Amino acid sequence: MPQNPIQACEIFDVWGIDFMGPFPSSYGNKYILVAVDYVSKWVEAQALPTNDARVVTKFLKKLFARFGTPKALISDRGTHFCNAQMEKLLKKYGVNHRLATPYHPQTSGQVEVSNRGIKRILERTCGVHRKDWSEKLDDALWAFRTAYKTPIGTTPFRLVYGKSCYLPVELEHKSYWAIRAVNMDMVKVGEERLLQLNELQELREEAYESSRRYKEKTAKTHDQKLKVKKKFKYGDRVLLYNSRLKLFPGKLRSRWTGPYTVTKVFSYGTVEIQGKDGNPFKVNGHRLKEYIEGAVNEGYVEDLSLPKPPE
């Protein structure tokens, strides 16, 4: 299906959230809970011993206290994100909970990209046995926040704080900013601060436009690679690809199940289908294909065992 990028309006308006792990136990921690802002690419993460609803709600309360209440939160449909505690918390703060389409991690693509980046940094900084990854997490976040991001044309740190992050190497070499800090004129400082605020607003507007152009470019490239653009309409009969169907070695069995009937088509690539039980559910259109009448006997599955090759 064509790519439909999510474009947020303001910094900290939309957050994506996801779990990484389980990893080898590090001081009792096995998981990393990651949250990423869709505009600035700013990442927050915490090492945790479990991945349940209690730790998620506690993490979100701290996130909202630091960055304000967002307009939307994007997550997958895991039980740690879809439960009564989460529903109560998000309703209290007035946050719209947007859920990814089942078996379609591209909806949470921004979080997935951040996860890979943090994981790569941890792999390079941890010891041989990688038991100290939880202690290296803060360093990994620092590196990620101060790294240049092509979609926004700057670093997340500069986009959030309006200034570059001073690194340890700069402190060692007595940077100019450290020298001028002792010579402060309050009038000039006030004028300079107003100028910095104006520059920060311009920087964020430029980052928004840069992100929009980058997403349009990647979406265009993605759509051009599609061999056949699938188009469905109400009443079509389709087959659904079941990626979780476990197939035994030596068996020929299709992962396509159905047929199902299309009941609704959404503009962003999601399709609502209905099976024999009459219960409709949503899937991403790329997991569907046209059902050719009479090609398969409904309800009949034949297993063919392949003989082992001679030794």
Automatic annotation (TrEMBL):
Pfam families found in the cross-reference section: rve
GO annotation, biological process: DNA integration
PROSITE patterns: INTEGRASE (PS50994)
Domain of life the protein comes from: Eukaryota
GO molecular function: nucleic acid binding
Domain Integrase catalytic: 1-164
Family matches, as InterPro entries: Gypsy_RT_Integrase-like, Integrase_cat-core, RNaseH-like_sf, RNaseH_sf
Protein name: Integrase catalytic domain-containing protein
Organism: Deinandra increscens subsp. villosa
